[in-house]
Specification:
Length: 203
């Protein structure tokens, strides 16, 4: 059975929980106490030298990075509705969107999220936070262009991208950015997905 090193409040871990449930893959969770800095000590540093969760354990194989974990499982199992199509260009476009999700949305989103959740307001780097909000706004406008005519981001089906975005769009109000209408509707649609609700529902 797969084992997932994770933390209940870790947005990146939530992605993998959502995926494993969506694909009905049995697994057990091993909680790493980030609040007690268990991730910065051995033995966890031998599991991931960067000291971050999630990490997947598949027998003797260890894999970190949420997006790489989901991709590995997706390629390992043959699902009837695979996220990666046979078509080279379709796969390339999905990879492009995955990279943009990470760099243009989740990274600036994390700057704001972690400041607001864990740093006292008097210590906020407000310029950096404002710049992050702007970047997120630009990204959402670009997503709006897709979502005006599609229910989902890639090939109009719930998939890899929705799973990557889900834990982050749950906190979209924190980003202090204008929400384009179709993006707002898409967020509600994604958060209503059964596997997403199972994982994020009580957050
Ligand atoms: N790019 C990584 C990011 C993982 C990440 O930043 N995890 C956070 C929790 S959400 C973490 O473990 N932080 C602990 C630390 O940096 O000390 C992924 O996609 O898995």
């Amino acid at each position: 059975m797969y084992q997932l090193y994770a933390h209940p409040r870790s947005t990146y871990s939530m992605r993998v929980h959502i995926y494993l449930r969506y694909r009905n893959l049995p697994y057990e969770t091993i909680t790493i106490a980030l609040d007690k800095l268990e991730n910065r000590k051995r033995p966890f540093l031998q599991i991931n030298p960067y000291g971050k969760v999630p990490v997947l354990k598949d027998d003797d194989f260890l894999l970190a990075e949420s997006s790489a974990i989901i991709r590995y499982l997706e390629e390992k199992h043959s699902f009837a509705n695979p996220f990666f199509s046979e078509d080279l260009r379709s796969r390339a476009l999905l990879n492009q969107s995955i990279n943009r999700c990470e760099s243009e949305f989740c990274f600036p989103g994390s700057v704001i999220y972690f400041s607001k959740k864990f740093v006292p307001p008097e210590k906020w780097d407000t310029n950096r936070m404002k710049d992050s909000s702007k970047r997120i706004g630009r990204h959402l406008d670009i997503l709006e262009g897709i979502l005006e005519t599609n229910e989902y981001l890639h090939e109009n089906q719930f998939g890899f991208l929705e799973i990557l975005y889900a834990p982050f769009i749950k906190n979209i109000d924190m980003m202090e950015t204008k929400l384009p209408l179709s993006v707002e509707i898409w967020i509600k649609r994604v958060l209503a997905n059964e596997s997403v609700r199972e994982v994020l529902g009580n957050e």
